[in-house]
């Protein structure tokens, strides 16, 4: 997985304790319609974000004592009623459909919502109940195929417009703030290979390989043999064609199959951006695959979007962008490793790198809007803009994290004493 | 806490899945007494360690097809019956009391037991039941005072014989394999300060400060003000005297109180080697203390012995060395952070550094044995040798881990993009 925007007008979950005080008051000008009062209440529940709302009635609902960060115009009763009924899904939907207008920076708007969300009161019992009634898409073998198809098979050309040269659709690593997207994606791949201390002649299994870039990078620059698994038909076709063109088909095998069907023994196991699609209920099973895939001196790395605490994926993202996806807390991720006596060597949180990666993606996306609109339509453009902008906000506000977890089999003492080798 | 030896003839727990095959067979020479057959059965349950046992009857019970790593002589029926009744406590007790003899290297013996233990079958229902009946010492406010008093108040002079100049009784950090103990302890303190990016004028609260060395180091080299909490009377007296002597009493305040009574707001929270004494049931409460102690750009570090998966402390260690102690898995440690929306930035596993630290301690301890025997007695010497040697084995075999967990408040974006600054 790549980037999943968190709470586009999200309420927080019951797992986190409340740590902040009361949200600030709001002022209403131009009358007090019933709908206006309902919107005020919703905004209170959302932690009173510093955003001004302008209704078709002429009402302005604005924060008191500070300038609003931006303005949202809701030009019809229908749009507001939809938002009031299910703001988490209908607000971003209304934006995608052009039924509301945003004046100001979309990323800032979403950051403001996130920061407010963090100080919002925990949802009521009813709110939690309704949240629990949402049924995310399941990750059975067949379910996962459908879920992955929904996102990754919408066209390789579309992704090539804004992912940069590497076609890497995961968080990059910026050794310096001014690194380009492509340089940062290469740096990420090297960072992961160095963490795993890959040596020529070794074998690696990759679970979820995207368009195959990382497998080729490992083969070319670290001299390893790679078997890379992926259930996205389009991605595997693209990756195979590329491996053949680059003369690496003998070193890299792409297997169009589920990670659960991985067989064989390898020196290392790696998975970049797949865990978000696995589902917590399958983590112990994933650990079984890791454990049976590794020899005595085995090690591996899992790179995934995560959370500070367990919380469901924002429902609009789950519904429109990433069906079946779930970013786990580090505690939840430990269910992969602990049952199998796998030893955690190193965890690095790269959330600010993902914000930067997404800024680069969004800029390329905006430059390609005319072409994207030709390929799809204006609604698709606004939907993806919302998703990318919301993801930036998720990472800058700490709503989302990015964990790289390096691990080894229990008795592996061939691990470096320090991490200095990563930085020389 | 410092170093807690794991399974001195330990059985493994139910939390870990079995990953290995059948233990090898054993050969018996010199007859088959009832006691000999019972010992054989015990050794099978322990994963058939490559150790030879010689009984008072003349029986030799040895591994088949390989040279034993070392020999244990059990010269009386009484000693064997005790071991058979409760090997986890009575085997190390018998060693401490001089009722058994070990021929060969004690660390190697214990490593062999650990490695065998990892391939041993999971304990039977009865074994688990008996394990659950053991009641470790509790960590209420009063219980913690007693537990800490038991270990840390046995005499500052004793500890000064083998901890080196720094009196730091926690895992050191060896930037190179040939670093001395004192250099490695200084490097550890700098490593932690750099991870936390301490700046002059900032304030730090330390939970569990030992003999006060780290608080002084932070004050002297990083220009911060420190309040350091500890419930060990002897340690606090020592630390205060030292701060005064070194002219740092204005910058460092030692408070003889429980971490639960920490008040005030600080830029950073640090705790090195206290978590082992907290108890998992108190982790969320510890997180509450951390959370209320930190401002918006707060960050901190917890350094603790840990596990690959949840398992009780080896019962002899819990009984004789560290009452109330428990090394947690990383998943369990997350109970400190997740309820409070604290963000994990970095986890580093230093288990091989603790093995090296312990080797240095054991060598200094052995050199001081005549003095220690004067201060206490021969039984005390053998008990501490068993504890230190077993701890080395715990870390070299991956039975124990050492985690440094760096964290920050959720909205803290003042964190460095990379960890390169730690290595330049």
Write out key terms for the chains shown.
homodimer; 424 residues; Nonspecific Lipid-transfer Protein, Chain A; Rossmann fold; 2 domains; 8-stranded mixed β-sheet; disordered N terminus
Give a brief description:
2 copies of one chain form a homodimer. By secondary structure, chain A is of the alpha/beta class.
Residue-averaged pLDDT of chain A, rounded?
91
Major sheet details of chain A: 8 strands, mixed
State the secondary-structure class of chain A: alpha/beta
Shape of chain A: elongated
Quickly give the CATH architecture of the largest domain in chain A.
Answer: 3-Layer(aba) Sandwich
CATH homologous superfamily label of the largest domain in chain A: Vaccinia Virus protein VP39
CATH topology of the largest domain in chain A: Rossmann fold
This entry's quaternary arrangement is: homodimer
Q: What's the total count of β strands of chain A?
A: 13
CATH class of the largest domain in chain A: Alpha Beta
What is the N-to-C succession of helices and strands of chain A?
EHEEEHHEHHHHHEHEHEEHEHEHEHHHE
Q: How many individual domains of chain A?
A: 2
State the helix count of chain A: 16
Describe the structure.
With 424 residues, chain A is α/β, with parallel strands linked by helices. Chain A contains 16 helices and 13 strands. Chain A has helices at 34-45, 77-85, 87-96, 106-119, 125-133, 141-152, 156-160, 181-196, 213-222, 233-245, 283-293, 315-321, 330-337, 351-367, 369-375, 378-396, and strands spanning 26-29, 51-55, 60-63, 70-74, 101-103, 203-207, 225-230, 252-256, 266-272, 294-307, 328-329, 343-349, 401-408. In chain A, the strands form 2 sheets. In chain A, strands 6, 7, 8, 9, 10, 11, 12 and 13 form an 8-stranded mixed sheet that branches. In chain A, helix 1 (34-45) runs parallel beside helix 2, helix 4 (106-119) packs across helix 16 (378-396) and helix 14 packs antiparallel against helix 16 (378-396). Chain A is elongated and about 75 Å long. Residues 2-15 and 18-23 of chain A have low confidence and may be disordered. Strand 12 of chain A pairs antiparallel with strand 12 of chain B.
């Amino acid at each position: 997985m790549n980037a999943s925007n968190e709470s586009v007008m999200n309420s927080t979950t019951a797992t986190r304790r409340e740590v902040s005080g009361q949200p600030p008051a709001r002022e209403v000008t131009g009358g007090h319609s019933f709908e206006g009062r309902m919107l005020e209440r919703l905004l209170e529940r959302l932690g009173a974000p510093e955003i001004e709302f302008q209704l078709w009635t002429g009402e302005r609902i604005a924060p008191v004592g500070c300038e609003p960060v931006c303005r949202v115009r809701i030009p019809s009763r229908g749009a507001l009623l939809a938002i009031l009924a299910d703001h988490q899904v209908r607000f971003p939907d209304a934006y995608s459909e052009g039924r509301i207008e945003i004046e100001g920076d979309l990323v800032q708007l979403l950051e403001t919502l996130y920061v407010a969300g963090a100080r919002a009161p925990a949802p009521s019992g009813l709110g939690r109940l309704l949240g629990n009634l949402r049924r995310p898409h399941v990750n059975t073998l067949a379910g996962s195929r459908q879920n992955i198809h929904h996102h990754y098979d919408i066209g390789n050309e579309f992704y090539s417009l804004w992912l940069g040269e590497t076609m890497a659709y995961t968080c990059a690593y910026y050794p310096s703030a001014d690194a380009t997207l492509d340089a940062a994606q290469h740096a990420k791949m090297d960072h992961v290979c160095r963490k795993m201390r890959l040596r020529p002649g070794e074998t690696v299994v990759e679970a979820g390989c995207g368009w195959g870039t990382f497998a080729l990078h490992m083969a070319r620059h670290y001299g390893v043999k790679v078997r890379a698994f992926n259930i996205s038909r389009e991605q595997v076709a693209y990756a195979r064609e590329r491996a053949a063109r680059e003369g690496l088909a003998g070193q890299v095998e792409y297997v169009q199959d589920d990670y659960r069907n991985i067989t064989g023994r390898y020196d290392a196991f790696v998975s970049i951006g797949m865990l978000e699609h696995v589902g917590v209920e399958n983590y112990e099973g994933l650990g079984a695959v890791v454990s049976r895939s590794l020899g005595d001196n085995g090690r591996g790395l899992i790179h995934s979007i995560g959370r500070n605490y367990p919380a469901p994926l924002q429902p609009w993202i789950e519904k429109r962008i990433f069906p079946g996806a779930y970013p786990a807390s580090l505690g939840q991720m430990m269910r992969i490793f602990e049952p199998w006596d796998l030893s955690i060597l190193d965890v690095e949180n790269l959330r600010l790198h993902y914000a930067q990666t997404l800024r680069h993606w969004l800029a390329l996306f905006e430059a390609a809007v005319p072409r994207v609109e030709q390929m799809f339509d204006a609604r698709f453009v606004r939907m993806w803009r919302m998703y990318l902008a919301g993801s930036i906000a998720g990472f800058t506000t700490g709503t989302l994290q990015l964990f790289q977890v390096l691990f080894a089999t229990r008795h592996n003492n061939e691990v470096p004493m320090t991490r200095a080798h990563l930085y020389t």
